[in-house]
TrEMBL record:
SUPFAM superfamilies from the UniProt entry: Metallo-dependent phosphatases
Molecular function terms from GO: hydrolase activity
Pfam families with a match to the protein in the record: Metallophos
Naturally occurring in which organism (per UniProt): Paenibacillus tianmuensis
Protein name: Calcineurin-like phosphoesterase
Length: 351
């Protein structure tokens, strides 16, 4: 074989290898898509810390950053009420002046974490011009393992050939994440979204609790290290903390002792949870002062009364947060009527 012929042969071989590799990569991607639901959703905007360029920074009467927290959306095509409530919230927020600058979804974004739930969520969100959207996982975002081949909730056949990994991947793909927990900076303020990392298919002992790994809590500690200046930081969870001194269990944050210890050195820390769905009106205390400011949000999808009954099906609630130079205001919103709730109205002075 001549040198020229050999070179032509080598070039042809390289082209064939390249084509084969491209085909293999495509097959692998298709495999991942099938396992995770193949749902293209809302990519989280990656932002870095920086100075607040807003000229209002010198005016104590003008908010420097405004964001809405929605918890427990439970979006599902099987429950049109959840979709209606989400649309009510998004329609209502369009009228806000100044505008909502970030939308934060704190767990149970979907009812079962199925592909069809995320498709319904995407269909609804894509109809609106939205600010940056951030989210973490709740226990219901892992619930696909309870759904059998007939589409029924079936405890006897759980996990129905499915895994917690698939639920995580589906959530992460929808929001453009590499892990279920992440953080972001908006208008110079830090949003930290912690996330339940496993459910009962992988860790039966956690029940409906939010288990955080040592890796995630070390990551939280590292992220908080930049807050020695006392600038407010906003931490999102889903399940609530147990009473002080307890480490948590089902329907609670796990491990709570280490979580509280990490927050102790810092001032002006605001922590938010959902999960309980409790109405801002006539139920439980929604603000608790510890070494941090702790707020229990209501629910957008299904507001419950004190007896955990979904009696007022028309109700849809969220929490609006505005940061000022010397304070943070937090107000409960009734989206079904487009009104503020006087029972959920707090002003926290910054120290």
């Amino acid at each position: 074989m001549s040198r020229r012929a050999f070179i032509r042969w080598m070039l042809g071989l390289l082209v064939m290898i390249g084509a084969a590799l491209a085909g293999l990569i495509k097959l692998l991607q298709q495999s991942v898509d099938r396992q995770t639901g193949g749902t293209d959703g809302v990519a989280v905007q990656k932002t870095e810390p920086g100075p607040n360029p807003d000229p209002a920074v010198g005016n104590p009467g003008v908010p420097l950053f405004s964001f809405m927290i929605l918890s427990d959306l439970h979006v599902s095509p099987d429950d049109p009420g959840t979709v209606r409530h989400l649309k009510q919230a998004l329609d209502d927020m369009k009228q806000f002046k100044p505008p909502v600058e970030a939308l934060v979804l704190t767990g149970d974004v979907t009812d079962y974490g199925r592909e069809r739930d995320y498709k319904e969520l995407k269909k609804t969100l894509s109809a609106y011009k939205l600010p940056p959207v951030y989210a973490n996982m709740g226990n219901h975002d892992y619930y696909d393992i309870w759904i059998d081949r007939k589409g029924d909730f079936n405890k006897d056949t759980m996990p129905n050939g499915k895994t917690d990994w698939q639920s995580r991947e589906r959530f992460q793909k929808f929001f453009g994440l590499s892990k279920p927990y992440h953080d972001a900076w908006e208008k110079g303020y830090h949003l930290i979204l912690l996330s339940q990392e496993a459910y009962v298919q992988e860790k039966p002992e956690v029940g409906e609790g939010a288990w955080y790994s040592d890796e995630q809590l070390d990551w939280l500690k590292e992220r908080l290290a930049s807050h020695k200046d006392g600038k407010p930081v906003f931490i999102m969870t889903h399940q609530p903390l147990p009473p002080a001194g307890k480490d948590g269990g089902t329907h609670q944050l796990i491990p709570a002792k280490k979580f509280r210890e990490i927050l102790k050195p810092y001032k002006n820390v605001f922590v938010f949870c959902g999960h309980r769905h409790q109405d801002f009106q006539g139920t439980v205390e929604h603000y608790v002062k510890e070494s941090f400011h702790y707020f229990h949000n209501s629910s957008l999808g299904r507001v419950l009364n004190r007896n955990y009954q979904h009696a007022a099906k028309e109700k849809a609630q969220g929490l609006y947060v505005q940061v000022y130079r010397d304070k943070v205001t937090l107000r409960g919103r009734a989206f079904e009527s487009g009104t503020w709730l006087k029972e959920a109205d707090w002003t926290v002075k910054l120290t």
